[in-house]
Amino acid sequence: MSIFTKIITGEVPSYKVAENDNFIAFLDINPNAKGHALVVPKVEENKIFGLSRDAYHQLLDFSYTVAKSLEKAISCKRVGMSIIGLEVPHVHVHLIPLNEMADIQFTKKVTCTHEEFVALAARIAAEFDRE
Ligand code: AMP
Questions:
Q1: Active site residue 92
Q2: Cβ of residue 46 lying under 6 Å from some atom of ligand 1
Q3: pLDDT at 131
Q4: Which of 35, 36, 56, 78, by CA, is between 20 and 30 Å from 115?
Q5: What SS3 string covers 98-125?
Q6: What residues form the membrane-spanning segments (predicted)?
Q7: For the segment 20-34, what is each residue's pLDDT rounded down to a tens digit?
């Protein structure tokens, strides 16, 4: 069972920002930038192109709404999107608030306190609920 499935079942805590029947979005625990979020299908599939075409489109559609919420909640020039999966073999879309090129590189990391994660997640979730 992947760490993300454990988040989906509630076994592992997360800073959740959005959820529906098929997808969940929560903050990345080791973010490139404040507000860096992951969008994850509840079905545990390893690779993005292992999803059905329909599930792939639904994942991008849900990510669109989460990205809109991020843009409203976090001060940034734009939201970048990246799909990697080398660390966690459970499909996820990285949505990253960008101000500079280094924000999309996975070498520069920022530190957030628990209180900051809680506040960021609440701001993004409130925007998601308004979408
Ligand atoms: P990758 O599989 O290379 O796309 O990266 C996996 C991402 O998941 C990394 O950015 C990690 O910081 C993030 N991650 C790993 N475990 C957790 C967790 N328990 N909660 C939130 N994010 C996580």
A1: yes
A2: no
A3: 86
A4: 78
A5: ECCHHHHCCCCCCCCCHHHHHHHHHHHH
A6: none
A7: 999 999 999 999 999
Q: How many domains does the chain have?
A: 1
CB atoms near residue 58 (< 10 Å): 16
Q: What is the CATH number of the domain that holds 30?
A: 3.30.428.10
For ligand 1, atom 12, the nearest C-alpha belongs to: 30
Provide the sign of the torsion angle of the four alpha carbons 117, 129, 32, 77, taken in this order. negative
Q: Which domain holds residue 52?
A: 3-130
Question: 48 CB under 6 A from ligand 1?
Answer: no
Q: How far is the CA of 93 from the centre of ligand 1 (A)?
A: 10
The position carrying tokens 């969008």 is: 39
The structure tokens listed for 64 are 């669109």
83 lines ligand 1 (CB under 6 A): no
